[in-house]
Description:
With about 200 residues, this protein is mainly beta. Helices cover about 10% and strands about 65% of the residues. Strand 2 (about 55-65) and strand 3 form a beta hairpin.
Amino acid sequence: MTNDVSSLRRLGKTLLSLAFLWAALPAAAQPSVGVGAGLDHAGVDCIGSFACDRSDSHVKLHLGWRIADAVDLQAIYFDAGRFQGGDRTPGGIDFGGRFKVSGVGLTAGYRWTLAAPWSVVARAGVARVRTRFDYADPYSGRVSQTTTQPIAQIGLAYALTPALRLSLDLDVTRLKVHTTRGTVSMFGLAAEYSF
């Protein structure tokens, strides 16, 4: 029950922060929405005879606001999928299981126009990354941890129309649960529509 109340409080604070951000943006800010998907890789450890799979697929969604010709802000959500790996306790006991990584974040970005309609964008920000770990047999149970992590993105975009853009993006953030820490890299195709 305490975790549910804590989660609701965090969600409320996040929504309130986004509302203040929305109100603080200049009236001329151009909104956009986007969706992306692709492949990803997580730097999880492989231990003993437990299953190991560091690759999966991801999906991401964003709301963006272009506040200047080349500058934008994005509120993002991502589900980086599931990975299999493990770790070792301080007492030397191996354990394995499945990691699930997701998060929400806020980034600021800058876009360089190469030659119309091509451009490159770089973004950096912070994300609240939730990593859940489900133990494999013979153990049971689940633990999760939510941490604040840096997130960065670089992308190559092609404008199909002035309002519709496709891009190849590489997003990088970190995961942490128990003593396991690692990098999550998401590479995929994204579409963005500007209003």
